[in-house]
């Protein structure tokens, strides 16, 4: 049986991974894609953003990060998918794994080499890395995960070039080329790419990856499956465990997330004022925020999201018959004062 190609889609928080994926899914290409989604924070907001009426299979893995705490779950999910395909229970041609914005793609890629059963069934086609032209320079300065994502890329897509001047794009491309001379770079506008630029790149080159990470094929301790459970308790406190209390990701202890939920509708004007004010103050520390909102004056869901000071919203699908109109918002940032956010948001409810 031929091997199932796998694409790892990575890129820092808010870099445009879901936008690109959505675009790929809506493009008529006649391929069936199984998607493994790993989000930071336990809310499935990306599911609301991704098209739901396609034939694609979307599997959410939100109780941890696939590059560490739930790597074993990733392995099991891949096994299960392959078994279902073999038995004719599920039809798909390829798998796309969308990592969280804070994931190190290295350990995810490792799964396809270290694990014999997985290696017998899957072929890692390539690692695609999205880079946010507006925020990448700071992200690369500040965050090790962002640098690793560039290092591991087989193909780099630069999003949001519409938000910056051409010379800034050029400077970014120059920097990325220094970090990873092998990966071709391409600007993408809201995920607009040709399927040929995304699939069957056969970009994954083990030797090149060993240059970046000489220990690539060693079962390094924190990522070792067997040690998982207690490693976890000692070193990390992932969103799944403590999203409500302000959790953090073990890659970077200062990155925390919290969730706000309410069944009452938001007043659009109040919410806009409040968010405008908080991004002014905390924007530089607000790495990523998104939500599905129940907004006064519309029967449709409002999908709201942002990165640092830049935020936007869209009308999503209508609330389904009988569906509880609960607003959910996730904030991921550095030392964000959860109480101020929660109290402020409560004040914006009708
Ligand atoms: N201006 C502009 N905005 C973009 C572009 N691509 C994506 N965006 C916006 O950037 C925001 C983040 O995009 P997503 O696709 O959700 O990013 P992501 O990488 O999936 O985010 P996380 O998984 O939450 O880290 C959304 O508001 C998108 O509409 C682009 O080319 N230009």
TrEMBL record:
A Pfam family it matches: cobW
Gene Ontology terms, MF aspect: hydrolase activity; nucleotide binding
Boundaries of every CobW C-terminal domain copy: 255-349
Gene Ontology CC: one annotated term: cytoplasm
Catalytic activity entry: GTP + H2O = GDP + phosphate + H(+)
Region annotation Disordered: where it falls in the sequence: 219-253
Keywords per UniProt: Chaperone, Hydrolase, Nucleotide-binding
Highest taxon, organism lineage: Bacteria
Similarity comment: Belongs to the SIMIBI class G3E GTPase family. ZNG1 subfamily.
Function in brief: Zinc chaperone that directly transfers zinc cofactor to target proteins, thereby activating them. Zinc is transferred from the CXCC motif in the GTPase domain to the zinc binding site in target proteins in a process requiring GTP hydrolysis.
Protein name, per record: GTP-binding protein
Source organism of this protein record: Polaromonas hydrogenivorans
């Amino acid at each position: 049986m031929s091997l199932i190609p796998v694409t790892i889609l990575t890129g820092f928080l808010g870099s445009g991974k879901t936008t690109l994926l959505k675009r790929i899914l809506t493009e008529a290409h006649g391929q069936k894609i199984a998607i493994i989604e790993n989000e930071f924070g336990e809310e499935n907001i990306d599911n609301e953003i991704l098209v739901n009426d396609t034939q694609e299979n979307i599997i959410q893995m939100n109780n941890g990060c696939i590059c560490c705490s739930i790597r074993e779950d990733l392995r099991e999910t891949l096994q299960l998918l392959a078994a279902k395909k073999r038995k004719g229970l599920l039809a798909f041609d390829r798998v796309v794994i969308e990592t969280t914005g804070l994931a190190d793609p290295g350990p995810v890629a490792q799964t396809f080499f270290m694990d014999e059963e997985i290696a017998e069934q899957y072929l890692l086609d390539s690692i695609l890395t999205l880079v946010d032209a507006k925020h990448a320079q700071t992200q690369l300065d500040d965050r090790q995960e962002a640098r690793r994502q560039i290092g591991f890329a087989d193909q780099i897509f630069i999003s949001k070039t519409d938000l910056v001047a051409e010379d800034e794009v050029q400077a970014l491309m120059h920097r990325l080329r220094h970090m990873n001379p092998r990966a071709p770079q391409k600007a993408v506008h809201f995920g607009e790419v040709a399927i040929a630029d995304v699939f069957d790149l056969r970009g994954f080159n083990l030797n090149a990856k060993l240059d970046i990470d000489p220990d690539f094929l060693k079962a390094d301790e924190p990522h070792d499956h067997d040690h998982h459970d207690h490693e976890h308790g000692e070193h990390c406190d992932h969103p799944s465990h403590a999203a409500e209390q302000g959790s953090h990701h073990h890659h970077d202890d200062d990155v925390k997330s919290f969730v706000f939920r309410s069944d009452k509708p938001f007043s659009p004007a109040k919410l806009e004022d409040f968010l405008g004010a908080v991004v002014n103050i905390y924007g530089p520390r607000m790495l990523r925020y998104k939500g599905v909102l129940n907004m006064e004056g519309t029967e449709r869901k409002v999908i709201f999201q942002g990165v640092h000071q830049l935020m936007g919203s869209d009308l999503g699908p209508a609330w389904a018959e009988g569906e509880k109109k609960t607003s959910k918002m996730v904030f991921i940032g550095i030392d964000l004062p959860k109480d101020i956010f929660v109290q402020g948001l409560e004040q914006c409810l009708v």
